[in-house]
Structures are given as C-alpha cells and as structure tokens.
Design a protein that fits this description.
single chain; 5-stranded mixed beta sheet; 56 helices; elongated; Unplaced genomic scaffold K443scaffold_77, whole genome shotgun sequence; CHAT_dom
Length: 1440
C-alpha cells in the first residue's frame, strides 16, 4: 500500500462521518487518529495530524458550507503538508484550492484568492507534468491568476498568469487540445470540465476520454469574435459543466457527452447517428439557468481576456443605454436561450433548426458581500450556482461582430458609456483625470460630436464616481456647481446625474444653501420632462418638497404657495388634497429609483400602481395623526427603493403589497390556481427582509417616513385653509412658523418621551413582527393564526418643533417630532373617522387664483382698509368666533398665537412708521459727509435705492397706522426729493434779517450755479467747493429756524398748509404698495381716504403693462393705415389691415378699479352736466404715475360713454407742494404782457421728419399778436422760417422773457439718465438739466408738443423726473404734455383749439385756469372725429 492508497482509504472513512462525529474529531484530533487511522496505517510516519485534520475540514465544509472550514483546511495543507513526501494529500489540496477559488469569486476576500493560487501551484509542482489532469489544473490556475489581476489590479498576477497560460497552451497544442471554437476557449472549457471531473474522483483514463468527446462537441460551435457568444454556446457549456459536477458514474458521463454531441449535430448540421439520450442529460439541460451570469460565460470571458493579453476589446458602446434597455436585452437573451433549449430537446424529432442570435458581452466587476450572515429559507442549491466575479450585460448583434454598423450614439447613451468607463477606476485615477481633464480621452470620444467631449460637465461623471466612493464634500460641492450650468435640452444625458445631485442637496435639509441649490436643479430637470410622465411627476414632487423646506428656512409664505401650486400638478386629475401623503411618498420613492438606479420612465410607470396599491391599503390619517403601520410600511418601501436593483425591485414591492394586504384584510386577492416560482419568491423574500424589514429594528421618530408624512400634512392643511378662506395662506403659514418655536411644557415633554420609548417601541415591534408573519404566510400559502391577525393599528398624534433631528437617524431633518397622544384604532374605525371629517368635501372647495393675496380687510377709519400693512387681515381672524385655521394644533393654541401675533403686529406697525417718518425727514435734509456723495449720479442712485419704500410703503403705512392727515404729510415730504432740494435755493428770503437774508441769498445763488447740481461730470475740486457751500447753507438755515416765527423754514409743509390745495377743487392722491392701495381725497371740507379694494398688485401691473403694449401696437397699426408720403413719424407703408388692440379694455380697467370709486366717493358722478363738471387734480404716486387716469372710462365712441371727462376736468400735479407753489404766483396776465416763444423742428438729424410742426407754428402765429411773438431769425422773415430748426442756445437765451413756450419737436425720455431727457433741437438736445438752470420769472404756460414729455422714469417714478414736471419746477404755472408718443397730425389741431380758447378776447386778461378746459375741449374734438384713444389719451395738463 502506498501513501495515495492509504489516504484514499482514510477519505472513504471520513466521507461516512456524521456532522456530530466530524465536529467532535475536529475538537479532539488525537481521538480520531487513535480510533480510525492508526489501525490502518502501515507506516507511522504517514500519520500527519494536520493533514488528517484538513480532510475533516473539507468534509465539514461539504456538510455545512462554512467558509471558515476551507480557510483552516487550506492553512493546514500549506503549512504542514508536503505533497512530495505525502502525495496522497494531492487530491485534498486540489479540492481546497477549488473551493478557495469559488469563495474568492463569491466574497472578493483577497486571502481566499491567494490561498487558491498557492494550493494549485503546490499541486502542479508535485504532480507529473504532461498528464491530462496537470494540463487541466494548469489552465485553471492561470484562470485564477487572471481573476486576481482583475480584482486587485496586480500586474504581477497578470504576468504570472500569462506565462503559465503560454506554457500550458504549448503543451495542450502538442496534446491535440484544439477545436474550431478557438484555442483559448477550448483550453479553458476543457480544463474547467476536467477539473470538475477530477474533483469527482475521475481517473486519468476517464479524463483522457473526456477530452476527445469535449473536442468533438466544441468543433460543432460556430467561431465568434472576442467577447461575443451565442446562447447555444453558453447553454451547451453550462450543461457540460453541470453534468461534470453532478454525475458520479464515468459510463453515464460519457453517454451524456455522446448524447449531447449527437443532438448538437442535429441542431446545427441536421445529422444524427441515433444515439440514445440519458434522462439526466435532458434534466440537466432543463435545469441550466438562463441568466447570462453563469460559469460558462465566466470561463469564456476569461479565455477571451487571455486571447487579448488581459485587455478587453472595445465593445459596441452605443448599446449602453438605460437600465430598461439592459433588461430588454436580457429578456431577448432569455428568449433565445429558451429557443435553443427547446430546439436541443426536440432536435432528434424535428431535425435542423435555423441559426441563432449572437450576443456581445460586457463584463462588469462586482464586489459581492460576505455570505457569513443568516440566510432565511434556503433551499438546496440548483444544479448550477455560480457566484461570479462579473456581472454580464448582453447586447444582441444583427450579424457577425466584425460586420457591425458604425457606432451611432445619442447623448444619453454616450454619458452612460462614460460612467461605465469611470466606474472601475481607482481614486488616484479619478483624481488624475479630474485635475487633468484633457487627458481623459477614452476611445468612445472619437465616435461622438466634439462638443459632447469638450463639455465641462464631463468632469461630473468623474466627480460623481469619486464622490460615490469616498463621499468627499468638495466633490459634492463642485458637482452641484457643474450641474447648475447644465441645460438638459442640449445635454440630456446628464438628466440622471442632475436628479441625483438635486436629491443629495435636498437631503441636506438643515443647510439652507443646499436646499436653495436643489430647487433650480429640480426646475431644470422638470423643464425637459414630458408633462404627465413619471419623470415629470417625481421632479414636480421633488421641487415641491424642496420649496416647502425652503419656505421654512426663509420663513417665506410665497415659497410655500409655490410649493402648493407645483404639487397640485403632481396630483392625479380630479384628485383631492387628501392624496397629498400618497403623492409625496411615491414621488420620493421614484426619486430614489432614478437617483440610485437611473430607472427609465417605463420602469417608473410600472412601479406607480404597485406603490399606490400599498399606500391605499393603509387607512389615511388626518393631520397631525399617523399610524405605526404607515410609518413601518413607508420606511420599508423607502429602504427598498435605495437598495434593490431593477431586476428585483418590482418583485420586492409586489411581495410587500401582497403581504400588507393579507396583514390588513386577512385575505389574498391572488387566485390559488397560480403557482409562483418558489425559488424566485423565496429569494425575493430574503431580499425584502435583509434590505428593509430586518434593518428596521429600532423605532425612532427621526425616520424619513415621518418627515415625508409631516411635509404632506403641512401641504394638506395649507390647501384646506386657502380653500375655505382664500387669501389666508400668509397668516396660516406665519402661525405655523411660530408654533414650531413654541416649547412643549415639561409635562408634555416627559409624557412624550415615555410614550416614544415605551408604547411606540412595543407597537413598532408588534407591527413589524405581524407584517413579517403575513408576508411569510403569503409566500408559503399558509393561514395566519387568529391571534396574529391585526384588529387594530397603533395611531398617535404628533407635534413638531424646529430642532435638528440627526441623533437617532441618518435622515438630516430640520424638525424634531414628539408624540403627544397614542391609541389603538381598528382599521375600519380609522376609515370611518376620516369619512366623518368630511375632508374630501372641503378639499374640493374652489382653489384661489392667487394663494398669496392678502385677506379681506376689516373695518377701520378708512372703510375696508386693512389695519395692518405687515399682516393685513389679522384683525378679521382675531375677531372671528369660528375655527378659522386648520393647523395641526389645538384651537386654543391657535387663538393664543393669533392674539400674540396681533399684539406684535400693532407694536411693529408703530415702530416701523416712526422709523419711516424719520428716514423721510432725514432724506429731505441730507447731510453729506463726502464730496463724492454730491455727484449727481450718486444722488440719483441713492434716490432709486430708497424711493420705492419711502414714497410707497411709507404713506400707506401712515394711512393705516395714523390716519389720512399724517399720511398726507408723509406723501408730500417723501416725493420729489430731488426737486425739493434743488428749489430750496430759489426760495424767497423776504422777511428775514437783512444780513442773514443777504448771506443766504449769496450762498444759494452760488450753490445753484454749481455744476454738480445738474451734471454728472464734475471735478474733485468742484465737488469739494459744492460740499462747503452745502454746509454753509445748512448752517444759515439753522440760524433762521432759531428766529421766532421761522422754526419751520424750509421744512416739509404741515397738514394745515397742504389742505389749502383744495381751494379750487378736490385733489386725489393715489398711494399704495404690495396689494394695498388707497386714494386720499383732499377737499375743502377735509380729508378722507378710500380703499381701492378691487385693485391688487397684479391688476395694477397688468394695467400698466397692458397700456404700454397697447400704445406700441396701436401706434404701429395706425401709422401704417394713415400713412401719407413725407408725413410719417417712424411709420411704414400700409401692407394689410389689422385689428387694433383692446385699448378700451385697459381704459375700462382704470375706470372700474380706480377712477369710478374715486369719483363716486367725491360725488362727482351724481352730476353729468358738462357745465358743472368737477375741477379735479390727480397726484399719482409710484406705479400710478404711468396710468392715463384722465382718460379712464367705458363706451368711448358710443352714446353711452362714461368716463372721467364726463364728470370732471382733470389736471395732474407732481406733488401737493408743487401745485401750491404754482398757485402762489400772479393768477392773471394781460395779453399785452405775454411773450410767446415757439420752436419747431420739422427736420432733425437722426430722427424722422415732422412736417406737421410747421402747421403748429402757423397756428401760433394766427392767434398771437405779432408784437408778442419772439422771433429768433432776421426781421421780416416768416415765423415758420425764423423759429424752425433753432439751436439749444437760441432757446435758452430767450427763456427768461418767455411767458408761453411752445415746443413742436421730438422729445426723448432717457431711462438711464433722467436729467439727460429733453427736446431734440437743431444742434442737440435741450436737456432737463439745462432747463433746470434757466431762470423763467415770467413763465405762464409750456405747451410741449413732443413725444413722452410727461413720461416718468421707471426706476424712480416718485421723483417725477420728466420734462413736463421740470417745467412746473422751472416756474411755469401750466404745462401741456404727452405721456407717450404723439401723432404728428394731432399737434396742430390740439394747438389750434387751445390757443383759440385762450386768446378769444385779445383785450382781456389770460386766465391760466382756462388751459385745462381748453385742452379738454381739444381732446373732445379729437374723440368726436373717431380718433383712436391712444392718440388723444396721451395729452395731459399739469399745474393750476
């Protein structure tokens, strides 16, 4: 007996040991040697305790499959056994090596791989070279080297493997191991098969005979290119490998190979030799798994790697698309596999079958987890179980690989390829390419457009891969910056990366900047999604939840309103807000699917009904209640969505749905006749438990599910509030924000902690165990025990505080949740309670058009006016006896918060008003500390910065807080600050002490002549000089105010002074800001105000913009239709008739919302007698300054016209003070005292011709005595020649003696520099700045027949920096101007009527009060001619 025979006997004995005996002998090896080995051993030197123990470990592994047995056995053989001296252990060494190799593939633990190679090398060194077994093991060892190289990137392993492979190949060629299938594939297929037979105890003769049969089979395979196989190849090889592992008898083994060879000949060639087929062959054929990841695919892939020197050839990258495409390709693979399986089974009877598809393979290295954990319900392994190092993706080819068409990629497929290239890179490689992006140039770049490869976002693929590996914040930050630059309509391939980044930022709930970055990312993602698609749905839910978080960070109700409106898009058509929980949860789950698995819309659409079914099984709770079961199920679904791959996802959630149905209803809707695939369903069960349910062992209210439910509840009750009480969202949101900072009482807090730690903990465990039992019962088709059927679910009420909650959960929430009260509730009662709340009915109330519009006001000193500008409408809620809000708080808490908020608002109102008044007073008396602040450009910028608040918010706040009297003072002192400061220098100093008056007059004149008053370009010295003069002037003013009787010198006018403006008729001051608008009505009887209740910010904006657009459109059309050659103003020849814009609609809007309520309050509409019309002045502030209030009305061109001019003759004034100042001058002038300057500009360089301006000159000449006309040309020339096309200097020289100025030319409103606005004359522009500097002591009327002469500056309308206002401040008592472009034909007609009325009696005095009536008559005449409103509405009158 030699050593091999001795060890063979021992192996036979060990094979018969029971598990208990093995365990005992492993613990006491000496006992085993004494009882079973020593009696058989002929030579005591052969007794090797460690060698014998390795046999026990090997057998123990066969029974237990514990990886530690192979580890311990391998170490013993490597350290204590020499095969040269003890060759009997060679077979044990081989088996341990084989198992170590399998464990290395399964676990990726490097020590298994190293021991496998060491054991095989030890075997090869001890065994005879050239034998069949030696060749087989050598091939397998080189394969192990290749695996080691691929996993560990060890170049040394590749070199060793290649050397061993080359030597083995030479020996195999000499031995005749060659077939048409390719040398490498043949070597490794034969080697793998023989190793399996050797492991079954196969002899050299058996192995030799097997080689011949295997080569016959392989010669029937069709040669394929590298990394390309057919399902027939892998099916036949899988069958061979499985037969080699399972068959003990050599005779049956040979018979199976012969039978397989025969049916393959029939299937591929149509030839048969009539061999009988063993049953085991067909059984094994049927048992082969169709998944592309199999031992056959692995062996072929390794063979092709050796053929290519360890490098994978470039594959058809255009095939790499979405996960759904991969799944479709796998389905095609399975179909082809089944066709080949069926064809092989039926080949003998059906004969020749047509050839099959060719697939290319892409191997992806996977790192499998350790199998040391518990495995539930494990069935015996199927015939073939191969835990491969690779995961294969298959791609069907239309023909031979070398005949593939040119690659054609879309951008999405291209980015998928780039990501797959990045995935296996090490951190160092990724870092190198990220820092040297130009070096990143994989072969695929040559097959796509250059702009794709040059995109900065290519770095995003590398950054995301590195971030996924190491979670470094800097990568995350840079990834966010890159994604913010992406435009998905141009680069759609980045959609899934952008979605991933958006969700990552959104998850950082506690960081405001992260939430703010997530919102625009979601917006971009939604922008390219088809509306109604799952992608659009998940994007909308993601954006809505992000905006809701942002609203709490910024305390902005408008953001919550946006969240509500956006989420409404995600709700199913006709669904109520009751489904908000379901919508938010499903949207979040789908976000995880796209984020982690790049799931396509089709796969998402398949998920939605299953998830809906799961959530529908849970009784929905009203805010703020939630059930433990709901938290458990939602948490399970969230865990699954992040951890389960596409191939198992739908099976897992379907199983969850089935188990939940059984848990809740104790019934199973699935027919008993259906017989599920038990292996598959048990695998799904293990997956469901391992990835979700078994991980949810510890209950905490910090779960993400809790946060999602709370978020949905906030949206639900907010929707409920605004549906019941439109315009209450702002108040509701403010109250809820305050409740988040309202501390719980110590007793409540203690009770909450006890509730959470005890009741909820046990309820969670009970629910989890019950659900687990229900799922298991569904899988095994067993009946649930009566005591395990749930009759109720634990439901609790929760409170929320604004506290970061990261202590017990990975979910980084900005809230902390406290359970307040818990109780058991039956499922039926839960549904009944919800029905009794009638929330469905309430949620179907009308949805407001504007969620953020403020509530309707309550009574105040001004009827209808809100009592708060900070939180309008709060008094209504404070005085209400009903439960006005549906917040998830006790009603007494809501009432207390409302009262406290009301008190704070009233206090804040007073404080803000006082601050506003102080700011306005300081602005009117600006103290300059630096010469640069005196520069005109700087002063205008400061006015722009403060004008909006001071002149708009300030007065309306004063009206609400202090009444109309204080409001009037604030309106006048907060507007026209530029003019006020400038005109103080032209104040009369009469009545002051002579010396002081003289010094004031000198300083004022010198300061008035400073260049910096009206010009931007001043030197530093000039600025310093002006600052010194400013300081001197202010000191002198302070001296004056110390004199008795002069304390208010140059201070804003008081209420009593301002009320004098109503002496000749009412003045209407229009004020407002942010949807609260009112009109001050100044009459001789006193002042009151009217709240413009129908006027909102949106309405006002629409009116302003609508009138501007209608003006532009109507001008364009009218100029085309009224085109006369040589008389157009920027017109074009007529092409076609077009309809005019709805201009009358805009004037009707002005009438409805502003003019009619004002006139009704004044009582003007009660008298329609044209001779008794009211004389009315408009003083518009802010956006009102752009509206033609004088033209408001309805029914123009009909007998039923009703308009402002029906009841009043309108004028405008920039401020109340300006009108008082104009009235303070002499009221009447004799005709003989008048001097008229008329300037016309029929042609102007760079502008269209204005031929009708000559006619205006003729009109002036017709009605004005010759001695009163200021002629600028030579004596004797006609006025049309002497006063046409004159220079700026000509105009300014004569202004001092001018009483009436008539300008007929182009006007220009400079939006960038208001003081550069002016009139276009022959040599340039007569600017506003130039006009300010002119002295006009005799000024009476300025007729500005030019475009936009009364148009305000958009940025600072309350400064009234327009040409018409400038004339008022320059001293003219009356001004006729235009609000927008005028028609060239209308100028002469308007002028003729005005001057005809003014100069009816040349011997009488000219009354300035006639001017507005004359203009009103002129406009009426245009109306009677049917002229379009855009032409006559532009004319307005300013002044007395």
């Amino acid at each position: 007996m030699d050593h091999r025979q001795f060890i063979a006997q021992i192996q036979a004995i060990v094979k018969e040991y029971s598990y208990e005996t093995l365990s005992a002998y492993i613990e006491d090896i000496d006992l085993a040697i004494q009882k079973d080995i020593a009696p058989l051993c002929p030579d005591a030197r052969w007794i090797n305790r460690n060698g014998f123990k390795s046999l026990l470990f090997l057998r123990h592994y066969d029974l237990q499959c514990a990886p530690n047995d192979i580890t311990r056995g391998s170490i013993l053989v490597l350290d204590f056994v020499s095969l040269f001296q003890e060759p009997g252990y060679a077979f044990t060494c081989f088996c341990l090596a084989n198992h170590s190799r399998d464990l290395y593939e399964e676990t990726a633990e490097i020590l298994h791989g190293e021991r496998s190679i060491q054991l095989m090398q030890q075997w090869l060194e001890a065994e005879e070279e050239g034998s069949v077994a030696h060749l087989a093991v050598a091939a397998t060892t080189s394969c192990s080297f290749m695996h080691y190289y691929i996993r560990e990137d060890a170049e040394g392993a590749l070199e060793e493997g290649m050397n061993l492979f080359k030597a083995t190949r030479q020996k195999a060629e000499k031995a005749g191991w060659m077939s048409s299938f390719g040398m490498e594939r043949t070597l490794f297929v034969v080697g793998e098969t023989l190793c399996q037979r050797y492991a079954k105890g196969g002899s050299d003769d058996e192995l030799t005979e097997s080689v011949h049969l295997l080569l016959d089979i392989l010669n029937l395979f069709t040669p394929q290119d590298n990394f390309c196989f057919t399902t027939l190849d892998t099916l036949v090889l899988s069958t061979i490998f499985n037969l080699a592992r399972t068959i003990e008898s050599p005779e049956i083994w040979f018979k199976c190979l012969s039978g397989l060879h025969n049916i393959l000949r029939v299937y591929t060639l149509g030839e048969s030799n009539g061999t009988d087929l063993p049953d085991i062959l067909l059984e094994t054929l049927d048992a082969c798994l169709s998944a592309p990841t199999s031992s056959a695919a692995c062996v072929l892939h390794i063979a092709d790697l050796f053929h290519s020197g360890g490098k994978c050839d470039e594959l058809p990258y255009d095939q790499f698309c979405s996960e759904d495409d991969v799944m479709n390709n796998r389905s095609l693979w399975v179909d082809s596999w089944e066709d080949d399986r069926r064809g092989l089974r039926e080949a003998i009877s059906n004969g020749y079958i047509c050839p099959h598809l060719v697939f290319s393979f892409k191997a992806i290295l996977v790192h499998r987890p350790s199998t040391s954990g518990t495995i539930h319900f494990r069935l015996p392994n199927p015939v073939e179980v191969h835990d491969c190092s690779f995961e294969f993706e298959v791609f069907p080819l239309s023909g031979r690989p070398n005949a593939m068409p040119q690659i054609s990629l879309d951008h999405t497929a291209f980015i998928r390829v780039v990501e797959k290239i990045c995935k296996p890179m090490s951190r160092d490689e990724l870092s190198f390419y990220i820092n040297n992006i130009r070096e990143f140039n994989p072969p695929i770049f040559s097959a796509v457009p250059r702009q794709w490869t040059q995109s900065p976002c290519i770095r995003a693929c590398l950054l995301r891969t590195r971030y996924l590996q190491h979670r470094h914040f800097q990568d995350f930050k840079e990834l966010g910056s890159l994604m913010l630059t992406v435009r998905l309509d141009k680069e759609p391939g980045y959609a899934h990366i952008l979605c991933y980044v958006a969700n990552e930022y959104r998850d950082e709930e506690a960081v405001m900047t992260s939430v703010d970055i997530a919102a625009p990312l979601f917006q971009e993602y939604i922008r390219v999604q088809e509306k109604g698609s799952p992608g659009h749905f998940l994007g909308v839910v993601g954006l809505a939840s992000t905006l809701m978080l942002s609203s709490f960070h910024h305390e902005a109700a408008v953001t919550l309103a946006a969240s509500l409106e956006i989420l409404r898009e995600a709700l199913p058509s006709g669904a109520s807000w009751m489904t908000a929980r379901k919508t938010v949860i499903i949207g979040r789950i789908l976000n995880y699917r796209v984020r982690h698995f790049s799931t396509s819309n089709d796969a998402l659409a398949k998920s939605i009904p299953i998830l809906t079914c799961i959530l529908d099984l849970l009784p929905s709770q009203p805010p703020p209640y939630v059930s433990i079961l709901e938290l458990l199920v939602v948490s399970t679904a969230l865990f699954l969505s992040q951890r389960v791959s596409a191939k198992d996802w739908h099976d897992a959630i379907t199983l969850l749905a089935k188990g939940l149905e059984l848990h809740v209803t104790n019934s199973d809707s699935e027919p008993e006749s259906l017989k599920p695939d038990m292996k598959k369903i048990l695998d799904t069960l293990n997956l469901l438990y391992n990835t979700s349910l078994d991980a949810l062992t510890r209950f905490t209210l910090g779960l993400e599910a809790m946060c999602l439910i709370h978020m949905a509840d906030v949206l639900r009750y907010s929707a409920f509030d605004v549906s019941r009480h439109p315009q209450s969202l702002l108040l509701s949101f403010t109250i809820y924000q305050r409740s988040l900072r309202l501390p719980l009482s110590s007793k409540v807090t203690d009770d909450a902690q006890v509730l959470e730690q005890n009741d909820l903990k046990w309820a969670w465990e009970d629910e989890r165990e019950a659900l687990r039992k229900a799922i298991t019962a569904y899988v095994h088709r067993t009946i649930l025990p009566v005591d395990s059927i749930p009759k109720s679910s634990y439901t609790f009420e929760y409170r929320v505080l604004r506290e970061k909650n990261t202590k017990f959960s990975e979910h980084k929430c900005i809230f902390r949740y406290y359970p307040i009260e818990g109780h058991l509730e039956t499922f039926d009662d839960a549904r009944l309670d919800l029905d009794n709340l009638q929330l469905e009915k309430n949620f179907h109330l009308p949805w407001p058009d504007d969620l953020i519009v403020l509530p309707a006001p309550s009574d105040s000193s001004v009827p209808g006016l809100p009592t708060s500008s900070i939180l309008p409408g709060i008094d209504k809620f404070l005085s209400s006896n009903e439960n006005v809000l549906s917040l998830p708080l006790e009603q007494r808490t809501i009432k207390a918060l409302l009262r406290h908020l009301g008190s704070e608002v009233r206090h804040t109102e007073n404080a803000v008003f006082n601050a506003t008044e102080t700011l306005i007073n300081q602005s009117s008396r600006k103290i300059y500390m630096d010469p640069s602040e005196l520069v005109l450009e700087t002063r205008l910028r400061h006015l722009k910065d403060g004008s909006a608040y001071l002149a708009r918010a300030g007065p309306i706040q004063a009206l609400i807080s202090k009444g109309p009297e204080k409001c009037l003072e604030l309106v006048d002192s907060s507007r026209a600050l530029f003019w006020t400061r400038l005109l103080r220098l032209r104040t009369s100093f009469d009545g002051l002490p002579e010396g002081l008056a003289h010094r004031l007059q000198e300083t004022a004149v010198e300061l008035d002549h400073c260049k910096g008053q009206v010009n931007s370009g001043v030197s530093k010295d000039e600025a310093i000089k002006q600052m010194k003069l400013e300081t001197s002037f202010e000191r002198l003013v302070d001296q004056v105010r110390s004199i008795p009787g002069f304390k208010d010198f140059l201070r804003p006018k008081t209420y009593d002074t301002l009320m004098k403006v109503s002496s000749e008729g009412p003045v209407v001051v229009l004020i407002g800001n942010s949807s609260t608008y009112a009109a001050l009505l100044i009459r001789q009887s006193g002042i009151d105000a009217i709240y413009l209740s129908t006027l909102t910010e949106k309405v006002l904006e629409n009116l302003s913009i609508g009138i501007q657009q209608a003006n532009r459109a109507s001008r364009s059309i009218l100029q085309e239709e009224e085109y006369v050659p040589g008389q157009e103003r920027a017109g074009k020849p007529k092409n076609s008739a077009r309809s005019l814009p709805p201009y009358e609609k805009m004037l009707g809007g002005l009438w409805q919302h502003i003019a009619k309520p004002v006139l009704d309050r004044l009582g003007a509409t009660s008298n329609a007698d044209p001779l008794k019309r009211t004389r009315l002045w408009w003083c518009p502030t802010g956006p009102f300054g752009f509206l033609p209030l004088h033209a408001a009305g309805i029914g123009f061109g009909t007998p039923h016209v009703e308009s402002v001019s029906t009841y009043a003759v309108s004028s405008y004034t920039p401020t109340i003070s300006a009108l008082l100042e104009a009235r303070s001058k002499p009221s009447l002038l004799l005709n003989s005292q008048l001097k008229m300057l008329v300037l016309a500009q029929p042609t102007t360089k760079g502008h269209t011709s204005l031929p009708m301006t000559v006619n205006e000159v003729k009109v002036v000449e017709q009605f004005t005595p010759p001695n009163q006309l200021l002629r600028l040309g030579e004596a004797g020339t006609s006025l049309t020649i002497s006063n046409s096309n004159r220079t700026v200097e000509d105009a300014t020289i004569h202004l001092a003696q001018t009483s009436i100025l008539h300008l007929a030319c182009h006007g220009h409103q400079d939006r960038g520099d208001p003081l550069n606005s002016g009139f276009e004359l022959e040599d340039g522009r007569l600017t506003l700045a130039r006009l300010i500097g002119c002295q006009t002591p005799n000024a009476f009327l300025a007729f500005l027949s030019a475009c936009e002469s009364a148009s305000n500056d958009l940025s600072i309308p309350d400064e009234t920096l327009n040409l018409a206002a400038a004339m008022i401040y320059a001293g003219f008592r009356s001004v006729i101007g235009t609000m927008w472009t005028m028609d060239d034909n209308d100028g002469p007609e308007i002028a003729q009527t005005v001057y005809e009325e003014l100069f009816k009696d040349p011997d009488q005095e000219v009354d300035p009060k006639l001017v507005p009536y004359a203009l009103d008559l002129a406009v009426r005449r245009l109306q009677e001619k049917g002229v379009h409103p855009s032409r006559w509405a532009t004319y307005i009158h300013l002044g007395v």
